[in-house]
Amino acid sequence: MEKEKSENVHDSCATDFLKQCERYFEADTFFTNWEAFLAKYRNVKMTGERWRLLAKLAARLFGIRKCMYLGGYRRTEDIRQEIQDLKIYLELSQNESENVRLPEPPAKYELNGYKLPDIVTELGNRSDPAGKYIALMTETLDNGGLEKVVQLLALEYDKLHLPVKVLCAEYGGRTAEELKCQGIEVIVFNGSRKVFEKYIKEHRPLIVNTHYVSSFLEIIHLYNIPVVEVIHNMYVFLTPQGIRKELKKAEYITGYIAVSQTAKQIYRKKICEIPEDRIRVIGNAADRSLTTDRKCADIREELHIPGNAFLCLVAGSIDARKNQLGILRAWDIFRHITSEESYLIFAGESTDYEYAKKVLQAIKERELEQQVFMLGHRRDLYGLMDASDVFIIDSYYEGWSMAATEALYCGLPLIHSECGSGIELTAGGFNGILIDNPIRNIEHYSYVELYDLMHAGINENIMQLADAMIKMYRHKNEWRKRRKAIMDYAENHFSVRKMIYEYLENYLEACSAEGKWHE
Fold this sequence. Notes:
This protein has 22 helices and 13 strands. The protein is α/β, with parallel strands linked by helices. Helix 16 (402-409) links the parallel strand 11 (390-393) and strand 12 (414-417). Helix 4 packs parallel to helix 13, helix 4 (75-92) runs parallel beside helix 19 and helix 12 (296-303) crosses helix 15 (381-387).
């Protein structure tokens, strides 16, 4: 009884407050947000959640913008997108087929300066006599792209007989346990500064290679140990507080590695005080051990896909950042324009339940259940790549796409949005088609704004994406003939050997330069 009385009081107060707020938010720029807010407010069932929404709304009256995560509730945006798709379909359907000459391969990559054995010898001489080692440091080490890079580095250094340890400032996780089973020493500090300082004092590393780490950097600096930080992503999600934290970290960092040119560019736009020459771009390599013996015909037979059908593959977690809704919209336009049978596969586990539900709903509304498959996590990803005609990545932001790199290892051409490694992997058109980012000038948005835009499915590149699919389809025979050349390009430019060489070369430079940036 008391609970019902409390909820009635809440509803009465909230209704009065909403009426007052509506008068404040009559500007056209807020109209869609206001409708979205009301829709979400009605859909939220718990009284506590409604109070939190109202508190955030009240904060806006005083200029304080708190994220209300309205993206999934913008009904007017859904209608606008349907109209946009119809216009794009009408425009692209009138385009005639064109004869396109695929670009010639860029110049072959050559390692400069030292050879890998020379660098290994040099680092070995600096480490072994003094009992020093290369420290790879993370906050946590559970599962993800960053974790896989750390795992790859640790295992490759161990193969080269370079002493290496992995330091987890907070806690470990799945990848940490895997590394222990593979013979790599992993030390977990559970956030203890005292334990970390004692360990560093007694077991001094030659260099610390940090991977998105904020903890204990001042302790490492206190012992004059060079630090190389890896910029793993386009840090468009940095808040003002996050930017201040990065600036503070810069005092303790000797040099940076950015995994792509775009990651470096966005980082310097966010934190312009860091000189350009302190950031070196080194692309990632992917793990080739996951290759499968399954043949293209077997995969297609399992999924009931005819051998001559055109197959588009999207691999990655199902969440708003990966933009599966935008890909689905463009593919729906593409399939109505082309005449032959075509299919779309989403391979990856759902990390955002609400977003995955929206994708499934969109498939159902378009009656695409027989042509679009959501397969979840697959261990035979290389087999799926071998069976596909094109790999699509249309993310809003990335660092370096491991899945897209694996696709190139299979000779599979890409359609890649201009984010993360898109420029490097498409290689001027030789390996695929580069299209605009789904949100142009993405670095100018705050994370709160970006979150809402992604979840609302805002896409400024739908026409480019649909057009790229059409071009891939119309020239599928030429792309199929190029698969061996794409594989060779990937082996040459995105090999583990190249990545390890450049990391070790950077470590040597950092060891020589320590003190230069902190004078």
